[in-house]
């Protein structure tokens, strides 16, 4: 008889797990945008001279930084040079092996790889969220890079950025879910 209850309990726990929704609240950013954030995050307005600066922080030390300004960081990485593999030995010899190989890369198709940013740490994805064209930044390796959202030219002609660095997979997913709720007030 006791074994008949086990499948029911397993199904009940699966149902609970699938229907759990994290508690969220909507915040207003500079009376321009709204975004839904998990209740665990505190919204903290910070002082800015010519911009609206804020952070979202939780008790586990996860911190998102955001701002609205003319000069918001678009989170783009510099484009590092890529050289043909056949030139590698020659270039390294000339530099007496002092060349920082994290800044220079070698490939069979250097022009294409540089254009496609193959050696970048992040993926850059353009999307439309609630009628707003956004750039979403995600690390190629979760936990090593930026997870962020950038909007070029809001209705007030300023830019918006919200990002965190080196998020684990759970907080990375929370960030992407949060980004999908952004909209104009």
Topology:
Layout: H1 2-19, E1 24-29, E2 33-38, E3 42-46, E4 52-57, E5 63-69, E6 82-84, H2 88-94, E7 105-107, H3 110-115, E8 122-129, E9 132-139, E10 146-151, E11 159-165, H4 169-179, E12 183-184
Parallel strand pairs: 6-7
Antiparallel strand pairs: 1-2, 2-12, 3-4, 4-5, 5-11, 8-9, 9-10, 10-11
Structure description:
With 185 residues, the chain is an alpha+beta fold. It has helices spanning 2-19, 88-94, 110-115, 169-179; strands at residues 24-29, 33-38, 42-46, 52-57, 63-69, 82-84, 105-107, 122-129, 132-139, 146-151, 159-165, 183-184. The strands form three sheets. Strands 3-4-5-11-10-9-8 form a seven-stranded antiparallel sheet, covered by helices on one side. A three-stranded antiparallel sheet has the order 1-2-12. A hairpin with a 7-residue loop joins β10 (146-151) and β11 (159-165). The longest helix has 18 residues, at 2-19. The mean pLDDT is 88.
Short description:
This protein is an alpha+beta fold. 23% of the residues lie in helices and 36% in strands.
- SSE arrangement, N to C: HEEEEEEHEHEEEEHE
Total E-strand runs: 12
Mean pLDDT: 88
Low-confidence stretches: none
Radius of gyration: 22 Å
Structural class: alpha+beta
Spatial strand order of the main sheet = 3-4-5-11-10-9-8
Number of helical stretches of at least 4 residues: 4
Distance between the termini: 57 Å
Secondary structure: helix percent: 10-25%
Give a quick account of the main beta sheet: strands, pairing sense, barrel closure.
7 strands, antiparallel
Strand content: 35-45%
Shape: globular
């Amino acid at each position: 008889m006791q074994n008949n209850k086990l499948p029911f309990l397993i199904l009940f726990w699966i149902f609970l797990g699938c229907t759990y929704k994290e508690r969220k609240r909507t915040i207003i950013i500079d009376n321009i945008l709204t975004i839904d954030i998990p209740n665990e995050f505190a919204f903290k307005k910070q002082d800015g001279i010519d911009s609206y600066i804020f952070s979202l922080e939780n008790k586990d030390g996860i911190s998102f930084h955001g701002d609205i300004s003319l000069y918001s960081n678009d989170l783009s990485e510099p484009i590092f040079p890529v050289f043909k593999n056949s030139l590698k030995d020659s270039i390294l010899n000339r530099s007496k092996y002092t060349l920082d190989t994290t800044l220079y890369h070698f490939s069979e198709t250097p022009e294409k790889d540089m254009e496609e940013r193959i050696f970048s740490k992040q993926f850059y994805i353009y999307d439309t969220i609630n009628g707003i064209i956004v750039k979403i930044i995600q690390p190629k390796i979760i936990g090593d890079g930026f997870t962020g959202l950038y909007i070029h030219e809001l209705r007030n002609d300023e830019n918006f950025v919200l990002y965190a660095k080196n998020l684990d997979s759970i907080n990375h997913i929370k960030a992407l879910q949060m980004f999908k709720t952004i909209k104009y007030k």
